[in-house]
């Protein structure tokens, strides 16, 4: 490809560093998009009037700092926001070999020792009282009858999700439910609208199922109604998939008035709604789901993983009337049925009130951590909710998100940039997501937040400044 780096070149320092910094600045300003292929070493050398060795050193330097990726037989590419960054984000905790590494990178509920005790107790009690069908289940694809009935009551009474038992489907977590809902109404090549920053799982799903994902502008309450309507008119989407409660990564949460506006737009344009309500239990009662306003054109999916224990991958998909016979074959094809034993534990805890107890405790624990973070990062712009799993931190000049991520990693703290959550290949915001639940020890969390606060008091080291 042809790229003019001369406007971004500085005369300071060695030429190879100047070229590496120019590449970073071109990406930051949008002149080079993530996923772009760079000129060959020789072509760029001729364009800039430098040696091939100088360009090679520049590319090597940029690769060391995560800006580019060299692919054998294919050349050098600006690192794609949906490639390496997502892999690194998902693998980071498993790659830590030093137990001193503080993990602020994964959206994870607090899981204190008391949760483990309750989990073991529940499993022991289930050994005596579990329904016989749990181990013999084969044909009830949508879920065991008693589990669906309990889920139906809980979804209606606690979350306000419209529907009857025959509209509820049990699945293996929210990610599975989203896949089933989207596959029901979206075909290969169709357009689906979502927030400009959204959960990385939906971005991956768009590539798996082959639909086109388009981002809609957001503010502190999620999708902006005017931007949503303009995008519907422009792209004619098959569906809109949104997270109205504690959007990942920003934490944006729609108040009921905003939900009314969004629902009215979707109803007027007759567009399918797929509502990701995975964080519903992290908010106290009062916010009604979008699906309650659009019962005939809404899929609603939630689960228990974010407010109880992360291993409880019990998902609940509510399907609009007339669509269940389309959704069930997708469930059968992907997992035959949701794992009965996991849903039996969920059913047991729904019956005895433990789910509400754990959710209440989670909100309290997260509120304590949000308060701690606000004190530690006082003076910085933060977006968060009182009981959110994470916060969205704006960085002061001249810091960039990946600069802070790299430096924090060297200091023993893992954090996440915006790149895994970006729908469109634009310049990433100068923000990072700090998750507050993965570290069960609040003193370790405090130490990690202190490291971030101390880093932001000084400018980034010069060698880091090649990263946008």
Brief summary of the model shown:
This protein has about 475 residues and is an alpha/beta fold.
How do the strands and helices of this protein lay out in sequence?
Blueprint: H1 15-28, H2 41-48, H3 52-64, E1 68-71, E2 75-78, H4 84-95, E3 102-103, H5 113-129, H6 133-136, H7 145-159, E4 168-171, H8 174-185, E5 191-195, H9 200-209, E6 212-216, E7 218-219, E8 222-223, H10 225-235, E9 239-242, H11 256-269, E10 272-276, E11 298-303, E12 315-318, H12 324-335, H13 340-352, H14 354-376, E13 382-383, E14 390-394, H15 401-410, E15 413-414, E16 416-417, E17 431-435, H16 442-456
Parallel strand pairs: 3-15, 5-6, 5-9, 9-10, 10-11
Antiparallel strand pairs: 1-2, 4-12, 7-8, 11-12, 13-14, 14-17, 16-17
Family: In the C-terminal section; belongs to the class-I pyridoxal-phosphate-dependent aminotransferase family.
Pfam families: Aminotran_1_2, GntR
Keywords: DNA-binding, Pyridoxal phosphate, Transcription, Transcription regulation
> Could you say which overall geometry the principal axes of the C-alpha atoms support?
globular
How much is the average pLDDT? Answer: 90
Radius of gyration (Å)? 24 Å
Strand order of the largest sheet: 4-12-11-10-9-5-6
Which structural class do the helices and strands define?
alpha/beta
Count of DSSP H/I helices: 16
Largest sheet: 7 strands, mixed
Strand content of the residues, in percent? 5-15%
Intertermini distance: 21 Å
Counted beta strands = 17
Weakly predicted, low-confidence segments: 82-87, 92-98, 464-468
Helix content: 40-55%
Family: In the C-terminal section; belongs to the class-I pyridoxal-phosphate-dependent aminotransferase family.
Protein name: GntR family transcriptional regulator
InterPro entries: Aminotransferase_I/II_large, HTH_trans_reg/aminotransferase, PyrdxlP-dep_Trfase, PyrdxlP-dep_Trfase_major, PyrdxlP-dep_Trfase_small, Tscrpt_reg_HTH_GntR, WH-like_DNA-bd_sf, WH_DNA-bd_sf
Domain HTH gntR-type: 13-81
């Amino acid at each position: 490809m042809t790229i003019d780096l001369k406007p971004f070149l500085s005369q300071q320092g060695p030429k190879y560093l100047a070229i590496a910094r120019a590449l970073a600045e071109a990406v930051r300003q949008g002149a080079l998009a993530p996923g772009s292929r760079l000129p060959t070493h020789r072509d760029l050398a001729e364009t800039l009037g430098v040696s091939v060795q100088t360009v090679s050193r520049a590319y090597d330097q940029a690769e060391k700092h995560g800006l580019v990726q060299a692919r054998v037989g294919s050349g050098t590419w600006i690192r794609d926001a949906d490639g390496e960054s997502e892999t690194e984000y998902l693998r980071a905790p498993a790659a830590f070999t030093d137990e001193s590494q503080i993990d602020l990178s994964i959206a994870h509920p607090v899981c204190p020792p008391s949760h483990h005790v309750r989990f073991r107790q529940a499993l022991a009690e289930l050994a005596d009282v579990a329904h016989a069908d749990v181990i013999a289940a084969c044909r009830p694809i949508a879920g065991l009858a008693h589990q669906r009935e309990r889920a139906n009551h809980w979804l209606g009474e606690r979350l306000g999700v419209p529907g009857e038992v025959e509209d509820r489907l049990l699945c293996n977590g929210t990610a599975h439910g989203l896949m089933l809902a989207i596959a029901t109404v979206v075909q290969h090549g169709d357009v689906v609208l979502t927030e400009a920053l959204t959960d990385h799982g939906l971005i991956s799903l768009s590539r798996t199922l082959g639909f086109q994902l388009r981002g809609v502008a957001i503010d502190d309450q999620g999708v902006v109604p005017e931007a949503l309507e303009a995008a519907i008119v422009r792209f004619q989407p098959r569906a809109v998939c949104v997270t109205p409660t504690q959007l990942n990564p920003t934490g944006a949460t729609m108040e009921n008035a905003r939900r009314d506006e969004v629902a009215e737009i979707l109803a007027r344009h007759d567009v399918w709604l797929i509502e990701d309500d995975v964080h519903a239990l992290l908010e106290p009662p009062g916010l009604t789901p979008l699906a309650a306003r659009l019962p005939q054109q809404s899929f609603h999916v939630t689960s228990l993983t974010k407010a109880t224990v992360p291993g409880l991958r019990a998902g609940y998909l509510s399907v609009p009337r007339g669509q269940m016979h389309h959704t069930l074959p997708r469930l059968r094809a992907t997992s035959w049925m949701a794992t009965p034993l996991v849903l039996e534990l969920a059913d047991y805890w729904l019956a005895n009130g433990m789910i509400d107890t754990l959710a209440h405790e989670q909100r309290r624990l997260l509120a304590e951590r949000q308060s701690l973070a606000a004190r530690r990062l006082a003076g910085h712009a933060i977006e968060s909710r009182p009981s959110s799993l994470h916060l969205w931190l704006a960085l002061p000049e001249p810091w960039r998100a990946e600069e802070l991520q790299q430096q924090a990693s060297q200091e023993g703290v893992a954090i996440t940039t915006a790149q895994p959550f970006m729908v469109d290949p634009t310049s990433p915001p100068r923000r990072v997501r700090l998750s507050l639940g993965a570290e069960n020890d609040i003193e370790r969390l405090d130490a990690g937040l202190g490291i971030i606060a101390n880093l932001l008091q000084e400018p980034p080291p010069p060698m880091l400044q090649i990263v946008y």
